[in-house]
Amino acid sequence: MRDGLAAYDVAMTGSQRLRIVPSQFAVDHLPNSTFPEDDEWIALVRAPEGLTVIREAPAWAEGEIWKGFYGEAGGLDTPGTLAALVGPLAESSVPVFVASTFHADLVLVPAHRLEEAVSALRDAGHRVAE
Q1: CB-CB neighbours of 118 under 10 Å
Q2: Which of 15, 62, 106, 127 has the smallest number of CB atoms closer than 10 Å to its CB?
Q3: Distance (Å, whole) CA 65 – CA 110
Q4: pTM for the whole structure
Q5: Which domain holds residue 12?
Q6: Nearest CA to 1 among 122, 127, 128?
Q7: Could you read off the pLDDT of 1-49 as tens digits, one per residue?
């Protein structure tokens, strides 16, 4: 296990069980929208600068494609759960985009960096099912 932030976070929250979501995703920004025109979205975040939309991306999609990790439910009152995941990815310089749910976090990484992300998370003590 690496030292620093990742070691601290895993010690605080324990090893997490993660699965790789079989879908691939696209993250879009719609600057002048408050809601997408279709219902093909997975998650929405509305902010002053517009709408961010996470969608399932078709196999033929162009642009940045993301793969997702989803963990077991940790609960809203468990501190450090998300930090324990993004810390090791940051240490490995793997970009992330996160959508949180009531039960867990969907942590997206660029599809071409998936193997690197899996290695970083496993090295930090997490269990990743493929």
Answers
A1: 19
A2: 62
A3: 6
A4: 0.81
A5: 5-129
A6: 122
A7: 444 444 444 444 568 899 999 999 999 888 987 777 787 888 888 889 8
Under DSSP, is residue 48 helix (H, G, I), strand (E, B) or coil?
Answer: coil
Single out the residue of 124, 76, 84 nearest to residue 100, CA to CA: 76
Contacts of residue 129, defined as CB under 8 A and 6 or more positions apart, other chains included, come to 17, 18, 19, 20
56: its two tokens? 């399932």
Domains held by the chain: number: 1
Q: Quote the DSSP letter at residue 49.
A: T
- How far apart, in Å, are the Cα atoms of 45 and each of 6, 21, 29? 27, 20, 10
Domain holding 119: CATH number?
A: 3.30.2130.10
- What are the tokens at 128? 């990743």
Angle at 81 between CA 64 and CA 100, to 5 degrees: 45
